[in-house]
Amino acid sequence: MGYTWYMKLNAAERLFMGALLVIAFGIVLHTPVTVWLSTMYPDSALLIKSWKEILMGVALLLFVLEVGKRKLFGEFFGDKIIQLLLVYAGIHFILMVIIPNNIQAVGAGLLIDLRYLLFFTLVYGAAKLLPNFRIIFLKTIFAGAAVVLGFALLQMFVLPRDILATLGYDSHTIEPYLTVDDNEEYIRINSTLRGPNPLGAYAVVIFALVIAAATKFGRRLKNDQHLIVGIAVAIATLMLAVSYSRSALIGLIIALIIMISVLIKPELRKRAVVIFSAVVLSIAAVLLVARTNPVISNIFWHDDPNGGAKIDSNKGHADSLASGTLRMARQPIGGGIGSTGSASLLTKKPFIIENQYLYIAHEVGWIGLGLFVWLFVEIMRRLWQRRRGALSLGVFASGCALAVIGLLLPVWVDDTVSIIWWGLAGLVIGGAYNARSNN
């Protein structure tokens, strides 16, 4: 059926779909590839790193042409989500004029701030225009997940810890691995992502999708499929554990609570949530009381009692939150596009914020932050309406988890995590199936 359907597409539709699939699969591999190519061809580093944005630009042109040919502009632009997204993007372009900045920093800032929203729009559109696109996009996402999980497994048990250094990873690009509080006994792996924290966040998304699907379709799965699901969950859990990402652990707990609340029978729901919450609180109490234990101190508190790093990561988070909040209060229209994060490294006043919401406020001010929150809430509302579907539930639960992770990290700044999750959200919301579907 897939090949027959594909052959019925015109050339523009094939190119449009192909560009999105290349991005969806390539995004989980691009970090090691772009680091290696950038070290080999430093003069072309910017072009190499922009491969996905270039493909999105091509896909956008094809999408606009296809929507115009089908005369669907009214339906497309009539969606509140698209309207909010366009207004949010428009604020970025207005602020480019009001608060001029280094042109390179502005360009980088625009790409970081808007690329995942553009990908959401394109996948949303593809799901509307090409109903069968949904299944092949999901297969692509899970194929990419298999690569990330597989390489993480190799990093944990087979490969040297600094294997990525052979591809050009170093202190000037991306560290090949990190440690907890400078303790070499606790290695934090990257897999194919940009670091342990993005890896942990990505693992939460995959975990939520697999658990939601396995729970919904458990009775339909064959023995070998049960085995595959079990292996995937085990590896994702292990991957999250060795990332030592506390924010991802919190996110996982939130995702599990949400899925338990939705999936369990109504008469058992309250009891299950109470029991699960009691277990979580008990574990938290143990971790607090036993925080001087060397293992617990390193793994959960990132605080080595025998020494540790010169810079306390906990203090770093607190200082970043304080300075970011102060700047937000003093800058109602923000600091301008490219004034925050990695883009700001191209300016004379680099400023790093370890909070997604303060990050947005610093880029586009209070109004921009309000619009983004409104957009995200509207997307989550649509996902919640479709929670009977396994995909919808997995994306909703992981979205709640990532929203909380964003309080501790600029989670949408990471291109892999943001493009994968927002692409999946676009697939659900744009899909040609109703909210009562169980698929």
How does this structure look, described?
The chain has helices spanning 2-7, 11-26, 30-40, 45-49, 51-70, 73-77, 80-98, 103-129, 133-157, 196-217, 223-243, 246-263, 266-289, 294-299, 313-330, 356-385, 390-405, 415-430; strands spanning 178-180, 183-188. With 439 residues, the chain is mainly alpha-helical. A two-stranded antiparallel ribbon has the order 1-2. Helix 2 packs parallel to helix 9, helix 5 (51-70) crosses helix 8 and helix 12 (246-263) runs antiparallel to helix 13 (266-289). The chain is globular and about 65 Å long. It starts with a helix and ends in a 9-residue tail after the last helix.
Short description:
The protein is mostly helical and 439 residues long.
Chain-wise SSE layout:
Elements: H1 2-7, H2 11-26, H3 30-40, H4 45-49, H5 51-70, H6 73-77, H7 80-98, H8 103-129, H9 133-157, E1 178-180, E2 183-188, H10 196-217, H11 223-243, H12 246-263, H13 266-289, H14 294-299, H15 313-330, H16 356-385, H17 390-405, H18 415-430
Antiparallel strand pairs: 1-2
Helix pairs in contact: 2-5, 2-9, 5-8, 7-8, 7-16, 8-18, 9-11, 9-18, 10-11, 10-12, 10-17, 10-18, 12-13, 12-17, 15-16, 17-18
Which overall shape is indicated by the principal axes computed on the Cα atoms?
globular
Largest sheet, strands/sense/barrel: 2 strands, antiparallel
Low-confidence stretches: 432-439
> Termini distance?
18 Å
Percentage of helical residues?
55-70%
The helix count comes to 18
Q: Please report which band the strand proportion falls in: under 5%, 5-15%, 15-25%, 25-35%, 35-45% or over 45%.
A: under 5%
